[in-house]
Inverse folding.
């Protein structure tokens, strides 16, 4: 049994037991309130540069498999839990959580008071931190944590994005051509686009508007992703061109999720800001202001759109019931809309799957 500890930039220390791959982890420490889904969380590119704390105490009891990953690798820098299940009791399990982390060369820390850690992060905000087994002085480790890059100003989308365009699993009966920007896209987004009849071409984050329009898409999708949206000037410029009917020579339907939602807001002149500790979990209530219904949503973001900065041509459509932050908007005259949360979450609530059908209806209406 290897002893390990988490050292935060605040100087707080949590000591526990190391599991998974024998290595250090560095990054922004955030907590997730979901009961399940640790495998999807670990492989979500939106967690690049972050160490994830699971608020639910028992983790690992259903193991891991290759079917439920959201990308080809683990993007989270490390995992922190209270209790690690030594067995994987599930018909689909192919390996234990620890074996999964070892295979993906990611460390974990167990045996700490995660409730105390979550309360600390809520009070002090997301913290830069280090998981380590090294015998270094506390002062040295705290100094190292404080020297880690801050999330504000980081363009992580370029880091996680695909290097080359590719076609997602094609449906022979596909009716709509969609170009999906990969700012950190999740596989289940692609699966749901496919299920509603879309032929999807995934393109790198730095793809130009001219390159997109040359593919003659019926619609454009802006994906989730990690980091701060403001440094992605290249993406903001491209979105402005695609959203401009004069440049695109048509009114082109655009649908954004999470980072894509933030980039869309910036493209229309709104502002974004860093949340104190972010929204991460599969149980967050959001009010649909159009239907007056409450949706239980999955969330994973550390930045949000400043509601007061939204221009008049954007209409607020969804509101977070925890803190009244912006969860969705639509353009008043163009076929453009977005949400901050994750309607594709797996596992997670299905309340918001209608958004993918809404996208196809716009593509049908505005087709060339």
């Amino acid at each position: 049994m290897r002893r390990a500890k988490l050292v935060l930039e605040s100087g707080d220390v949590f000591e526990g037991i190391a599991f998974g791959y024998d290595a250090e982890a560095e990054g922004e420490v955030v907590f997730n309130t979901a009961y399940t889904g640790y495998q999807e969380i670990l492989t979500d590119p939106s967690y690049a540069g972050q160490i994830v704390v699971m608020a639910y105490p028992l983790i690992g009891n259903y193991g891991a498999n290759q079917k439920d990953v959201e990308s080809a690798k683990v993007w989270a820098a490390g995992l922190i839990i209270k209790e690690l299940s030594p067995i994987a009791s599930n018909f689909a399990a192919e390996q234990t959580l620890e074996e999964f982390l070892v295979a993906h060369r990611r460390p974990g820390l167990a045996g700490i008071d995660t409730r105390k850690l979550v309360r600390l992060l809520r009070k002090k905000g997301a913290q830069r931190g280090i998981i380590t087994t090294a015998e270094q002085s506390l002062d040295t480790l705290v100094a190292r944590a404080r020297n880690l890059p801050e999330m504000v100003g980081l363009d992580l989308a370029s880091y996680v994005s695909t290097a080359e365009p590719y076609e997602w699993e094609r449906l022979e009966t596909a009716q709509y051509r969609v170009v999906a920007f990969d700012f950190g896209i999740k596989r289940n987004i692609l699966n749901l686009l496919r299920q509603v009849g879309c032929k999807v071409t995934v393109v790198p984050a730095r793809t130009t508007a001219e390159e997109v329009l040359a593919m003659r898409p019926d619609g454009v999708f802006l994906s989730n992703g990690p980091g701060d949206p403001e440094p992605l000037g290249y993406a903001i410029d491209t979105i402005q061109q695609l959203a401009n009917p004069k440049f695109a020579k048509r009114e082109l339907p655009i649908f954004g999720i999470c980072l894509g939602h933030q980039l869309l807001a910036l493209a229309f002149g709104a502002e974004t800001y860093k949340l104190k500790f972010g929204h991460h979990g599969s149980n967050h209530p959001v009010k649909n202001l159009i239907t007056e219904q409450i949706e239980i949503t999955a969330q994973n973001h550390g930045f949000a759109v400043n509601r007061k900065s939204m221009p008049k041509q954007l209409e607020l459509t969804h509101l977070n019931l925890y803190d009244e932050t912006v969860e969705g908007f639509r353009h008043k005259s163009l076929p453009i809309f977005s949400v901050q949360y994750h309607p594709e979450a797996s596992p997670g609530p299905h309340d918001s799957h209608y958004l993918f059908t809404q996208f196809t209806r716009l593509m049908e209406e505005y087709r060339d």
